[in-house]
Amino acid sequence: MVGRPRSEVARKAILKAALDLCERDGYPNVTLKGVAAVAGVGRQTLYRWWPTKREVLLEAMTDLVGAEMQPPPVSGDAGADLVVFLRETFAVAHGVAGRVVVGLMADAQADPRFAEELRARLIGPRRQALRSVLERGALPADVDVELAVDLIFGAMWYRLLNRHAEVDERLAEEIAALVARLG
Prior knowledge:
Elements: H1 8-25, H2 32-39, H3 43-49, H4 53-65, H5 78-94, H6 96-108, H7 112-138, H8 145-162, H9 169-181
Helix pairs in contact: 1-2, 1-4, 1-6, 2-3, 4-6, 5-7, 5-9, 6-7, 7-8
């Protein structure tokens, strides 16, 4: 191992500082210098662990939504499970997490390697969790699950990017009701 091992206290302080700065100043205005200052760590520590702000914020997001990566427990009512999943997902997306993910997605457009990392660590696990919920019986057998995942998350992304409407409980319920009408 090269250098000293990461301090978990410092790591958590850095991730919290990155999210706090993103919430306060917006994703484009977050800098590693600012994160280091707010976290109370040296910039070299930060640069050694994360060479860019997007990598810090991706780790912060995977820590923040780690517990939500799993689908909700099976209740026996596939439609109700879908509503629970979407409410939880949209609640996270509604706050600073939504702004971070939009910024990460924007960065991913110019960097195919980062795009793959974002898909592997954050987007892919969320897609798999939604797919799992839909496969409980929320969709008719003849509906393509991958297309349904795209449509559901597409509505969320469209609203996050255009900010023309909320990503909230109402959207979760409307999408679940629309999915139920497919059957």
